[in-house]
Amino acid sequence: MKLPCLVVALCFGVGVMAGKYSRDVNEPKSSDGQKLEFRIAKLDQVWNKANRMQLSPVRQSELHSDLKIQEKDELQWKKLKVEGLDENGEKEAQLRRNFNVILAKYGMDGKRDTRSLESNHLKDHDIKEGDTFEDPRLDKLWNKAKSSGKFSSEEMMSLKREFQHHKDKTHEYNILMDTISRTEEEIHKNEISALEGDTKEHVLHQKHSDLKQKMSDLNQGFERLRKISREGFSTDSEFREPRVIELWEAAKRANLSDNELDSLKEELRHFETKVEKHSHYQEQLELSHQKLQHVESLGDKEHIKRNQEKYNTIAEKTREMGYKMKKHMQDLSNKISREGLEHNEL
Questions:
Q1: Which of 6, 78, 131, 229 is the most buried (most CB within 10 A)?
Q2: pLDDT tens, residue by residue, 272-318
Q3: CB contact at 8 A, 88 and 199
Q4: Distance from C-alpha of 195 to C-alpha of 193, rounded to nearest angstrom
Q5: Residue 328 near residue 271, CB atoms below 8 Å
Q6: What phi, psi does 35 have (nearest 5°)?
């Protein structure tokens, strides 16, 4: 009897096929068999377009992380839709807005990106040589901090990260303003039915609420920068990274109990370590890219190949860490909002 051998052979074959299926067959592929980066066609198209645009390595990595978050959210929404849990289309509209924000953020929305320079939503001034953050208020604070002599070189780096974060948040606010303006124009046109108009009005109301919250966050963020620029960093500061500080400030405003805040503080410490690790990889990615460019200019094919492989490895790791970091931030933000809402309802 050779049955045991046959069973072993079959089990081994199934195991191999299962592994192959999970690794290869289950990966999204195009009609010609090429592996796709994303399972959703429009996201894959955006990624391919970005590759042709030759974004900087760090910016390309950031885009990849944003698209992965968008993919996760859209796949989750499709399950909700099948279960009938998005009847008013609010989640769908939010996803569409998030996608439009990504396109605008990386200059792929089909128009020249002048928001950070010409938008009068938050600022209206000519860019002068020496301006760092494209906002006269930020530039004034930054120059004041630089000349004060109260910051060490390490503190100046931390402060610059906070200023850059505020600039990025301002840019996101202006993108949202543009999105709302376009939605309002659609509503006032006669091209949509009354039912669609009601739905869009509801979505628009939600967008205005988001806008109001973002403006409140920006104002509080600017006041924090002004205080730091005037008084320096507090010796008992809980966190260093701007995104973590923003979450902690939101948590303190959310009417949470002391035990909940202590628990969240510990989680934020772990998150801050993740943010710092991701920043380190971004720096390594930029350095690796510079080295690759230098090697390419020398023309040694073997040397180029080794550096290209090293660069690809760092790029993949940076994208992976970027996605995990942004997903963690998304989860923390949702958790703070949810728990704060529950306390307010009690």
A1: 229
A2: 999 999 999 999 999 999 999 999 998 889 999 999 999 999 999 99
A3: yes
A4: 5
A5: yes
A6: -65, 135
- Chain Cα centroid distance, residue 173: 14
Confidence (pLDDT) at 25: 43
Q: CA 113, 118, 121: angle at the middle one, nearest 5?
A: 105
Q: Is the pLDDT of residue 222 over 50?
A: yes
| Residue 217, burial from CB neighbour count under 10 angstroms (0-12, 13-18, 19+) | middle
Instruction: Give the span between the Cα atoms of 227 and 224, in whole angstroms.
Output: 5
CB 272 within 8 A of CB 244: yes
Q: How far is CA 130 from CA 122, 127, 163, 164, 319, in A?
A: 20, 9, 15, 15, 32
Mean pLDDT of 207-221: 80
| Predicted local confidence at residue 63, as pLDDT | 96
Which tokens go with 15?
């195991």
List the structure tokens of 53: 């645009």
Query: Maximum Cα–Cα distance for the chain, whole Å?
Result: 88
d(CA 264, CA 214): 22
Q: Which two tokens stand for residue 170?
A: 């301002």
Alpha helices in 54-120 (DSSP H): 57-82, 90-105, 115-118
